[in-house]
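Hi R.,

Here's the chain you asked about this morning:
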Amino acid sequence: MTTPAITLLTDFGTADGYVAELKGVLVSLSPSVPIVDLSHDIPPQDIAFGRLTVARYWRRFPAGTVHLVVVDPGVGTARAAIAIASEGRYLVGPDNGVLSPALFALDARVVQLPVDPAASATFHGRDVFAPVAARLALGASLEELGESYANPVRLRTPPPHRDAHGLLHGEVLTIDRFGNIITNLLTRDSSGMVKIGGRAARLVRTYGEASRGELVALIGSSGFVEVAVREGNAAATLGIERGASVVLG
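And the predicted structure, written out as tokens:
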């Protein structure tokens, strides 16, 4: 049987030693377990961005994978530390909504993790979450690690709404590193227009259907409508930030 991997998603960046400390704990406690760096570039304290990132990948890894997620602006406060078993995978991190995607599966189980009084009040990633991730990867059951936890924080992507004229109104969920504007709009039709920031963008199927520098919209790999500038930065072009309104018609 292949040893399950531990994946890492944090807002730590790589300029400091925080990621190295996490890995030091993991390698010490579970030296045979592969560690997969997913990203350490989540914007600092950005729970919403982290949640959307988790939603993209947590099911893409094989059963048994342990996803360690540390985006934790409430570290050291009364917020709970949790571990989740969901669809054969495990997720470990703070109870602030960043792990929400795994909580909506029908078989999801959650435990609250004990926090040792000796744990650093500013680094639960190292002192609480990493040891638990190592134990899960080595075969510990969820129930060995903590007490059942009934009401974890569940954050949902806000749904779009349709007005009396048939127009679909939504909002900007996030902006990726290319400057593409990811919205909560959903459609199966790759035709029509998206209005955002006082501009209109025609829906296309691929970036290749747009001219260089053209503002367009398309259905992205996550299933949501995205607004992009071919070989450019749509967010910078439009001056758009997360939460801005968008209309599909």
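The mean pLDDT is 96.

Let me know if you need anything else.
M.
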